[in-house]
Design goal:
This protein is of the alpha+beta class and 439 residues long. The protein contains 14 helices and 11 strands. Helix 3 (96-108) packs parallel to helix 5. The protein is globular, with a radius of gyration of 27 Å.
């Protein structure tokens, strides 16, 4: 009898040990694993994935995004090379386009070795694949640049010294907004009716704000009641909490940014961030790079910020703007009159645009006014808060290895055509001069 009891005790101990191992494994999973998450709206996140009961937390380069479970399409664990190799192995033997797509994915994460192998394989299948040939040259140039680049911390700046650590804020070809910058953008782009936005309050900020604002007692009976209204409290701190606003973290993408990532950002990346245009890495594009040719959250938020800040002086070069009464600005994102946004105007064919895109060989526009893509961008701009927020962010775009800063706005070149409102002051001034000369 006692022997049987001992056997039962040993079995129980074995079961408990097994449970302990499983719990430990579960905790390791909860701490997060590298992987790739795709949402049902085709947004892709690559970073450390932490699966929870009702949501999935993704940390990409220090930027956390909380995604509801019912919004997740798929999760694939493993590092990039493991996943890339597995997907590449599934391509058909004659799929040259699939290999170009795989190469582009590798290029975006600086795996130029994988990209080059895939592109050479694509050209072996289809020697006339112009996209593969062009991208192969770009990949080889980038590999040479990376190989000849000085070690981190040894790159001299324009003054002959070593740049400060904050000069380059993230990995990749370009610097990006910092996590604190991105949090500020998130805060100021929340719509009043955005019910899905979530907050994470740090450093006891709720209690600090309550203690600093006795007037809150006129609305809330106690701190306990105030703390239960966490969303309203977070918005109060963002609005008038001063430095305390930094401790209010927006834990997921606001609704407006979800709309930006799909379909606006993919359209901009395909139409503007190509190697020959605003995402290029050649001498002809170094002076006006605007769009970062990547899709991770840091790059996406940086693109959002750059588009909000970018403007063009329509009267540049007209008697230094004096005769025209000063600059006439057009904005990439015009929240007051969305139809005048350069993101729309420059995307139209020349015959349909009030402000035509500067002449670029081969560029004929991205859509027409009857196109669903045009309407999607217009709807997105109309959905922004009508008053442009003051982010208070100081940001200069850099391309690594160039030793130079890139403008964070579009070039102020004189456009191909001007709207009547911009040209009328110039015409009036010219007529006045002719009258003075008696002509």
């Amino acid at each position: 009898m006692r022997g049987q009891q001992r056997r039962i005790m040993r079995i129980r101990k074995g079961v408990c040990s097994a449970v302990a191992v499983l719990v430990a494994a579960g905790l390791a999973v909860a701490a997060g694993r590298p992987g790739l998450l795709k949402t049902k709206t085709c947004i892709v996140y690559e970073g450390v994935i932490d699966e929870r009961e009702q949501s999935v937390l993704v940390n990409v380069r220090g930027i956390e995004t909380n995604i509801p479970r019912d919004s997740v399409e798929s999760i694939a664990y493993g590092d990039f090379e493991t996943r890339w190799t597995a997907d590449y192995g599934k391509l058909a033997a004659d799929d040259d386009k699939g290999r170009v797509k795989a190469a582009r994915a590798a290029f975006e994460v600086q795996r130029y070795d994988l990209a080059e192998n895939a592109l050479r394989a694509a050209l072996a299948i289809q020697p006339n694949n112009a996209e593969a040939a062009e991208m192969l040259q770009q990949t080889m140039r980038q590999r040479r640049l990376e190989q000849t680049k000085p070690a981190a911390g040894d790159t001299p700046n324009n003054n002959g010294g070593t740049p400060a650590p904050h000069d380059v804020k993230s990995a990749g070809q370009y610097n990006t907004l910092t996590p604190d910058d991105i949090n500020r953008v998130r805060q100021l782009e929340i719509r009043q009716n955005d019910a899905k936005v979530k907050f994470r309050l740090e450093k006891n900020v709720l209690k600090r704000y309550w203690d600093a604002n006795p007037i809150l007692a006129d609305t809330y009976k106690s701190y306990g009641e105030f703390s239960k209204a966490q969303t309203q409290a977070a918005m109060m701190i963002i609005k008038d909490g001063g430095e305390m606003a930094k401790d209010v973290k927006v834990a997921n993408d606001p609704e407006v940014f979800v709309e930006f990532r799909n379909p606006v950002l993919p359209l901009v990346l395909r139409g503007c961030a190509t190697s020959a245009c605003h995402g290029g890495n050649n001498d002809s594009t170094k002076r006006f790079a605007l769009i970062l040719p990547g899709t991770d959250p840091a790059q996406a938020y940086t693109n959002f910020f750059l588009l909000q800040q970018s403007r063009v002086n329509l009267t540049k070069g007209v008697a230094d703007n004096v005769m025209a009464g000063g600059p006439t600005w057009a904005y990439m994102i015009d929240r007051t009159t969305p139809e005048n946004s350069l993101l729309l105007q420059y995307g139209l064919p020349g015959g349909q645009a009030d402000i035509r895109h500067p002449t670029v060989k081969g560029y004929t526009g991205m859509f027409s006014k009857n196109d669903t893509k045009y309407r999607a961008v217009l709807t997105f701009i109309r959905g922004l808060n009508p008053i442009p927020p003051e982010y208070g962010i100081e940001f200069e775009l850099h391309r690594k290895g160039d030793g130079m800063e890139l403008p964070t706005s579009l070039p102020t070149t004189f456009p191909t055509s001007l709207p009547a409102a911009a040209t009328q002051p110039v015409n009036d001034a010219i007529d006045a001069v002719k009258g003075m000369l008696g002509k």
